[in-house]
From TrEMBL, chain A:
<protein>
    <recommendedName>
        <fullName>Protein YIF1</fullName>
    </recommendedName>
</protein>
<keyword id="KW-0333">Golgi apparatus</keyword>
<feature type="transmembrane region" description="Helical">
    <location>
        <begin position="240"/>
        <end position="261"/>
    </location>
</feature>
<comment type="function">
    <text>Has a role in transport between endoplasmic reticulum and Golgi.</text>
</comment>
<feature type="transmembrane region" description="Helical">
    <location>
        <begin position="175"/>
        <end position="195"/>
    </location>
</feature>
<dbReference type="GO" id="GO:0000139">
    <property type="term" value="C:Golgi membrane"/>
</dbReference>
<dbReference type="GO" id="GO:0030134">
    <property type="term" value="C:COPII-coated ER to Golgi transport vesicle"/>
</dbReference>
<dbReference type="Pfam" id="PF03878">
    <property type="entry name" value="YIF1"/>
</dbReference>
<keyword id="KW-1133">Transmembrane helix</keyword>
Automatic annotation (TrEMBL), chain B:
<dbReference type="InterPro" id="IPR013880">
    <property type="entry name" value="Yos1"/>
</dbReference>
<keyword id="KW-0472">Membrane</keyword>
<feature type="signal peptide">
    <location>
        <begin position="1"/>
        <end position="18"/>
    </location>
</feature>
<comment type="function">
    <text>Regulator of endoplasmic reticulum secretion that acts as a key determinant of brain size. Required for secretion of extracellular matrix proteins. Required for correct brain development by depositing sufficient extracellular matrix proteins for tissue integrity and the proliferation of neural progenitors. Acts as a regulator of the unfolded protein response (UPR).</text>
</comment>
<dbReference type="Pfam" id="PF08571">
    <property type="entry name" value="Yos1"/>
</dbReference>
<keyword id="KW-1133">Transmembrane helix</keyword>
<dbReference type="GO" id="GO:0015031">
    <property type="term" value="P:protein transport"/>
</dbReference>
<protein>
    <recommendedName>
        <fullName>Immediate early response 3-interacting protein 1</fullName>
    </recommendedName>
</protein>
<keyword id="KW-0732">Signal</keyword>
Length: 337, 81
């Protein structure tokens, strides 16, 4: 009971830290031992040596004002049981503070270590960039995805300090719409199968797995093509994922159209395929094709000339041509025939 | 027609195996894809050299892990069918 309360208090007290948050705090292991000494009732025989060592052994991080209390508590009398010591220590305000600080630092260290490990594989800030959207952006982007033909300005604003967030730039790729569209596509697929009386719970999982695998294959194919053709772009794999996943919006529209009238499905699919292709090619042209890259860099890259330019056009057409195929492949079993 | 995540893993294992089995002298050199790196000045590496580079890197990186992964998969296939 007391332990739980202490832990909660420790979480609240954020201001006082024994040592700063950055870097690797040196006393990682010792602080763990010390806090476990105070937090949990230690077994007999383990506590006394630690208390005896405490006056001389504590490293630099040990708060100095706590020192005089240690021998006092340790020498409180031979009749005192080892098991009563932790409770006594916790009632001492200085000790409580120390314990809180240790707990706080432990929490901080754990979070830090997690962040570090996570940042090794995926940089969190980069993911956050793709999800910084607002309602106006989402509405405008969805309209753009479905009616891209009248849109004029496809260039992405350029800011030397940091990439422009999607909410300020309509043409920047985001991952919010693709993620939501993917989930919606799965659910709509379930509804469609339900209308046809073909629904089964495991069917949803199979469909999710299939769609996910195809998305991975598509991104991998584009990524390998970029490498093999030796095309240098500013596109990251998240950009590729975002651009190639906008097709789910079109697929949802096509499947919903097949609810209304089954024969409309093919017409709707043709329209949204054209829209998605147009959108993708116009958006990626800015990022891949040479003349636009000249503007932002102002220098001549060798792969932009002659052969390189041709390769880039082929890549663009390849990515554009892939979309209708994938859209048809992923909706053909779901839509009402 | 379920294309599951597991089949993607299987397929990628087979493909990586196929890439690693290509022998530099016995096969690639005979097809004319030898290791010579002739590059015209001023142009980037050609598609062929990039593919060769990819094959070589996959072989270097995946040789040891592939041995273990293949053993595990073979045993699993024996036991589970």
């Amino acid at each position: 009971m007391r332990k739980a309360r202490r832990a909660a208090e420790m979480q609240d007290q954020g201001a006082s830290m024994p040592y700063p948050q950055y870097g690797y705090p040196p006393p990682n292991v010792p602080s763990h031992q010390d806090s476990s000494m105070y937090m949990t009732g230690p077994p007999a025989g383990m506590y006394n040596p630690a208390a005896a060592q405490a006056p001389m052994s504590p490293p630099a991080y040990y708060p100095q004002q706590g020192m005089p209390f240690m021998p006092m508590g340790g020498g409180g009398g031979p009749e005192q049981n080892n098991f009563s010591m932790p409770a006594q220590f916790l009632q001492n305000p200085v000790m409580t503070n120390m314990a809180m600080q240790y707990g706080q630092s432990l929490v901080g260290q754990g979070k830090e270590a997690l962040d570090r490990e996570l940042n090794k594989y995926v940089s969190t800030s980069r993911i956050k960039y793709y999800f910084s959207v607002d309602t106006a952006y989402v509405a405008k982007k969805l309209a753009l995805l479905l009616f891209p033909f009248t849109h004029r300005d496809w260039s992405v604003k350029y800011n030397p300090e940091e990439p422009v967030q999607p909410r300020y730039e309509l043409n920047a790729p985001d991952l919010y719409i693709p993620a939501m569209a993917f989930v919606t596509y799965l659910l709509i697929g379930g509804v469609s199968l339900g209308i046809q009386e073909r629904f089964s719970p495991e069917g949803l999982g199979i469909q999710a797995s299939t769609a996910l695998v195809w998305a991975i294959i598509e991104v991998l194919a584009i990524w390998v093509t970029l490498y093999v053709m030796n095309i240098q772009t500013k596109l990251t794999s998240f950009d590729i994922l975002a651009f190639s996943s906008y097709k789910y919006v079109g697929m949802i529209v096509a499947v919903i159209a097949s609810f209304i009238m089954p024969s409309v499905y093919h017409l709707a699919l043709i329209y949204v395929s054209a829209a998605t292709m147009f959108f993708l090619i116009r958006s990626l042209k800015v990022q891949i094709l040479p003349e636009s890259s000249h503007d932002s860099y102002g220098e001549q890259n060798t792969s932009f000339t002659g052969e390189g330019s041709k390769r880039r056009t082929y890549l663009l057409l390849f990515m554009g041509g892939l979309q209708p195929l994938m859209m048809w492949w992923l909706t053909r079993q779901i839509a009402r025939p | 027609m379920a294309f599951t995540f597991w089949s993607l893993l299987e397929a990628s294992l087979l493909i990586v195996n196929a890439i690693c089995v290509l022998h530099e002298e016995r096969f690639l050199a005979k097809v004319g894809w030898g290791g010579e790196q002739i590059q015209a000045y001023g142009s980037g590496p050609s598609v062929k050299s990039q593919i060769l580079n990819l094959i070589r890197s996959v072989r270097t990186v995946m040789r040891i892990p592939l041995i273990f992964i293949n053993i595990v998969v073979i045993l699993m296939k024996f036991v589970l069918g």
